[in-house]
Each structure stands twice: as structure tokens, then as C-alpha cells.
């Protein structure tokens, strides 16, 4: 992978050099010890009380290896925390615990309240980390995109996609979907986000048309985001370095969830003893403390990672000079027009312009019209006066489209117009991509 404009190729070897500067202090021995104790307590609970189908699935997951991808582990931790919080809510306590009023039960209720507070705090931190990280990845990619209508189109597509995803989650919740159902959907949506980044890097799917016209985007960045899901790609170095401690924490919270789930269903027959409660309290304290420490650490690593370098650094400003706007002077009492011949519907016509202002703020009239092949004229964008504008639309007919900057109303003042205009033709779609393109055109 060749360097572009002085940028260093983003490879696994390159990331390894960077990660050498950020060693993660190992998890305390208590993580392994307490995880084993909690798992042993859970095993004791099913002796003589065979697990239900749901419990069997949870046991199977607890005895399996955690996911390999780090972000999937983050989602798994979040899911298990929410499941635990559900169990710790008073309405979901075992009936015997709700009905009893002994000092021992009251002490246990106080402990449960403390555990709930710790999990709620950790959940908020994890949610905030995921939101910031997701936004940072997208914003970094967008930093390298031309700062005109093409970047705007990609942002609009992303925002529309996120609204659709949230509506999908809301519909699931309103239909009575479980916490597990919701997180299965959330992970599916996360993989869709990754897939869209891959499409951007490989110029396919909803981004195929636009990427053909993305002048000045460094190939090293496109190569990186195209490979972001590869098991042996650049991010594998991150998994090898920082995955093991996160995997241990994923197992630990799953063991805690399994133990509580089994204990709640068997509470009347097998009340928890003081040792089990003490170990549970210590395990929750160690887990929440260590997960928060890991999130704070990995946040710093991500924020400073080389694939998050600002495009304003290094040679990116020079690269953007290859994507310059045109400038022209529109004399007083005159107009300036650009004609674009469109042969296919669903082409994109887009513009981005501004007036170079002097001592006085100026405006200029702007409109868009189309004359079809039969000579019939249609006003696409009504006339209005403005200092600058950026916009786009998808054509619904073939013909001659004319963008008009009108300075005829001005008697004395000429206008210095800086502009960019493009007509982006549709790209023939491969099988399975038609529906993806529709997202962009809605």
C-alpha cells in the first residue's frame, strides 16, 4: 500500500509501533479468582435443580470463548450489565426476598442497591464511550472528504441511516422485545455501520457514485476503512494487544449475570449465604472498577491512534489544493450561467458557492431550471438572493439543467463568485445494491 501525499501507510506493523507506547497495566489477580468463585457458585445452584432452556443457553455462552472483536465485547458487556440491572430492580427480586423483613434480608437489600448503583454508573460510562467512539470514527473519515456537497451527501445518508436504525430499535421495544433481542439488533446495526465504511473504502453500495468523484481522499485511509472488518487486517493488532483483558471482563460479567439468574429462580430453596453475598459484592466492585479503567485507557488509545490523525496535519492541506473551487467575476447588470447536459434520471446535480466579500456584504440571485428534450422548461429551484449556498438534488428527467447566478439587479457592484458544480451520473448497480442506493436517494 503506497503512501499518499506524505501519509504513512496504515498497516498492522505501523499500528504495532504506535501501540508499543501504550501498554495496558494487567488486570489484578482478583478478576480471575473472583470469576472462578462466581462460576463455581453458579454450578452449585444447578445441582439437583436442572436448568431451564434459557438458563442452559446462558450456561453454554458462559462456557464458550468471548467474541474476538473488541467492539462486540463492548456490546456484550453492555448487554450483560442491562440484564443484571433488570434482575436488581426491586420488582424483579425473588418473592421471598420481597416478602421477608428480617435484618439479614434488609442487609442483603442494601447490598443489592449498592450493586445496582455501580452497574448503572458503569453502563453510563460504557454508553458514552461507544457513542463518542462511533462519532469519532465517522468524523475522522469525513475530515478527509472534500468539504463540499459530496461530504454533505455522505453525512445526510449517515444521519438518515441512524434515524432508521433508531426507529427499528424503538419498534422492537414497543413490540415487547427482550433485552437480548434489542442487543442482537444493536450488534447487527453496528456491523451495518462497519459494512458502510467498507463500502466507502471500496467505492461500492450507497457510496459507489460519490467515491468516483472524491478527489483528494488519501488511498491509505480508503484502504484502512475497507479492511476494518478483516480478521487479519490492521485492527487485529489492537485485538492481540488489548483483547485479552477485555475478554476476561466479558467472562466475569457473564458469570455474575449467570449466578444471579440462577439464584433468583432458586431463592426459596437455596438462599444465598454470607460467603456468596460477600464474593458477589467484591466481584461487582472489581469488575466495574476494572471495566471503567479499561474504557478510560482505550479511549486515550483511540483518541491518539494514527488512523485518527486530523486531515489538517501534515500534507492534507496540500492535497486539498487539488480540489480547488473556480472563481469568476459577475459584472454589474449581468448574469452567469452554467449548463449541464443530463442524459439519465437519478443523476446528482450539486453545487457549493459563496461570494468573496469586501467591505460591504453582497448577495447574488440564484436559481436552477431544466429544459427537457422536448423544449419544455421547468423551474427546479426558485429564484432567491443569498451570499452562499450548498445543495443537491437527484434528477427526475433528462435534459439541459441550467444554474443561474443573477447580478442584473445591481447597477454598480460586480460580484466575485467562488463556486463548484458537479453533475454526477448514476452508476449501474450490481446485484443486491439497488436497495442500498435507494437509501441515498430517499
From TrEMBL:
InterPro entries: GOLD_dom (IPR009038), GOLD_dom_sf (IPR036598)
Domain GOLD: 321-423
Domain of life: Eukaryota
SUPFAM superfamilies on file: Supernatant protein factor (SPF), C-terminal domain
Designated name of the protein: GOLD domain-containing protein
Amino acid at each position: 500500500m503506497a503512501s499518499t501525499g506524505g501519509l504513512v501507510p496504515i498497516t498492522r506493523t505501523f499500528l504495532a509501533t504506535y501501540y508499543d507506547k501504550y501498554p495496558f497495566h494487567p488486570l489484578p489477580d482478583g478478576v480471575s479468582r473472583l470469576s472462578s468463585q462466581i462460576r463455581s457458585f453458579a454450578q452449585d445452584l444447578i445441582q439437583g435443580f436442572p436448568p431451564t432452556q434459557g438458563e442452559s443457553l446462558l450456561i453454554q455462552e458462559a462456557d464458550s470463548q468471548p467474541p474476538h472483536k473488541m467492539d462486540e465485547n463492548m456490546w456484550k458487556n453492555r448487554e450483560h450489565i442491562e440484564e443484571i440491572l433488570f434482575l436488581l430492580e426491586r420488582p424483579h427480586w425473588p418473592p421471598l426476598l420481597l416478602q421477608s423483613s428480617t435484618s439479614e434480608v434488609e442487609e442483603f437489600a442494601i447490598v443489592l442497591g449498592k450493586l445496582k448503583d455501580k452497574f448503572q454508573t458503569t453502563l453510563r460510562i460504557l454508553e458514552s464511550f461507544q457513542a463518542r467512539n462511533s462519532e469519532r470514527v465517522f468524523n475522522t473519515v469525513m475530515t478527509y472528504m472534500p468539504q463540499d456537497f459530496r461530504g454533505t451527501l455522505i453525512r445526510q445518508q449517515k444521519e438518515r441511516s441512524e434515524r432508521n436504525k433508531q426507529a427499528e430499535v424503538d419498534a422492537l421495544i414497543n413490540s415487547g422485545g427482550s433485552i437480548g433481542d434489542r442487543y442482537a439488533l444493536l450488534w447487527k446495526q453496528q456491523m451495518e455501520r462497519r459494512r458502510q465504511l467498507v463500502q466507502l473504502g471500496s467505492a461500492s453500495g450507497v457510496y459507489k457514485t460519490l467515491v468516483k468523484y472524491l478527489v483528494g481522499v488519501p488511498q491509505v485511509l480508503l484502504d484502512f476503512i475497507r479492511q476494518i472488518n478483516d480478521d487479519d487486517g490492521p485492527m487485529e493488532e489492537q485485538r492481540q494487544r488489548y483483547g485479552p483483558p477485555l475478554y476476561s471482563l466479558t467472562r466475569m460479567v457473564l458469570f455474575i449475570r449467570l449466578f444471579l439468574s440462577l439464584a433468583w429462580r432458586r431463592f426459596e430453596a437455596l438462599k444465598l449465604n454470607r460467603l456468596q453475598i460477600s464474593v458477589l459484592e467484591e466481584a461487582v466492585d472489581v469488575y466495574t472498577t476494572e471495566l471503567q479503567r479499561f474504557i478510560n485507557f482505550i479511549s486515550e488509545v483511540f483518541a491518539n491512534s494514527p488512523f485518527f490523525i486530523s486531515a489538517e496535519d501534515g500534507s492534507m492541506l496540500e492535497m486539498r489544493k487539488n480540489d480547488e473551487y473556480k472563481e469568476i467575476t459577475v459584472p454589474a447588470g449581468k448574469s452567469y450561467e452554467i449548463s449541464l447536459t443530463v442524459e439519465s434520471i437519478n443523476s446528482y446535480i450539486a453545487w457549493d458557492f459563496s461570494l468573496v466579500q469586501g467591505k460591504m456584504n453582497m448577495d447574488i440571485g440564484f436559481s436552477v431550471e431544466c429544459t427537457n428534450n422536448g423544449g419544455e422548461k421547468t423551474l427546479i429551484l426558485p429564484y432567491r438572493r443569498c451570499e452562499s449556498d450548498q445543495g443537491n438534488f437527484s434528477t427526475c428527467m433528462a435534459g439541459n439543467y441550467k444554474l443561474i447566478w443573477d447580478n442584473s439587479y445591481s447597477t454598480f457592484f460586480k460580484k466575485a463568485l467562488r463556486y463548484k458544480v458537479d453533475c454526477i451520473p448514476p452508476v449501474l448497480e450490481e446485484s443486491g445494491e439497488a436497495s442500498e442506493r435507494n437509501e441515498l436517494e430517499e
